[in-house]
Write a structure and sequence with these properties.
By secondary structure, the protein is an alpha/beta fold. The protein is built from eleven helices and ten strands. The protein binds adenosine-5'-triphosphate and magnesium ion (MG).
């Protein structure tokens, strides 16, 4: 479904991605693990057309989307739940969700998608008229995920979805990711919670200083010395 081939990305003279290659098959959960500054968000933003790589290729569903602007990438079915949520605080929960369905691909099915999102997040349904800025952090994260779903994505890239959330809300986020996976969604998951993300993922990649240094099944990475020492403190 997604193929990233030898991607290079620079911010000025500083190289953030150095020959990064990865794939995600249809329906797969793929975890990307790495320390702060490793290039995880840069990778996601490059796939999503928010950064322009200087070399390499990104293909999605067979289309070469390298360098495409974000709105075109979204129209093709790539969703992105960005770090820091980025909801509209003064709009209601419902209005935020409706904003997610402005893509051409999503307009027709908006009512049905809204019912599905509300079923997945009963808390959002209860608070549909409430200003989004007054939601708790965990509820805002659910809203960000819900808004992404309103765009009818076929793949979702999550950037640190559990950052700053309580253990209960973190579990809730993982429950939702599992439910989306069971529905056949392709998922790229960047998570601080390395143990939980590798347990959930079929495969994963370890990113260090903009390079993929290790890849394998979630279990193989959990068992590897490098991951155990650097990311699990074992
Ligand atoms: N807009 C930018 N301009 C300049 N440098 C940037 C920019 N965004 C990221 N960087 C740099 O690129 C490198 C990779 O950053 P990135 O945000 O991709 O890392 P990350 O793995 O997502 O880290 P974190 O776990 O802290 O979110 C870092 O050294 C960062 O300082
Ligand atoms: Mg990041």
């Amino acid at each position: 479904m997604l193929t990233v081939e030898t991607l290079d990305l620079f911010y000025g003279d500083a190289q953030a991605l150095d020959g990064v290659s990865l794939t995600a098959g249809q329906g797969e959960i793929v975890a990307i693990v790495g320390a702060n500054g490793a290039g995880k968000s840069s990778l996601i933003r490059s796939v999503h057309g928010m950064q322009t790589p200087s070399a390499g290729r990104v293909t999605f569903k067979g289309a070469d989307i390298t360098g495409w602007p974000s709105h075109r990438v979204c129209e093709l079915g790539v969703g992105h739940v960005a770090e820091g949520r980025q909801i509209f605080p003064n709009l209601s929960v419902l209005e935020n969700l409706e904003m997610g369905a402005t893509l051409k691909r999503a307009r027709g099915a908006m009512a049905a998608t809204l019912r599905r999102v509300m079923a997945l997040f009963p808390r959002l349904d209860e608070r549909r008229r409430q200003a989004a800025g007054t939601l708790s952090g965990g509820e805002q994260q659910m809203l960000a995920i819900g808004r992404c779903l309103m765009g009818q994505p076929e793949m979702i890239m999550f950037d640190e979805p559990s950052l700053g959330l309580s253990p209960t809300m973190t579990q809730e986020v993982f429950r939702v990711i599992r439910a989306l996976h069971e529905d056949g969604m392709t998922i790229l998951l960047v998570e601080q919670n390395v143990m939980a993300s590798l347990k959930l993922a079929q495969r994963g990649y370890v990113l260090e200083n903009g390079r993929v240094v290790l890849e394998g099944t979630g279990q193989a990475l959990l068992d590897s010395d490098r991951v155990r020492q650097a990311y699990l403190g074992l």
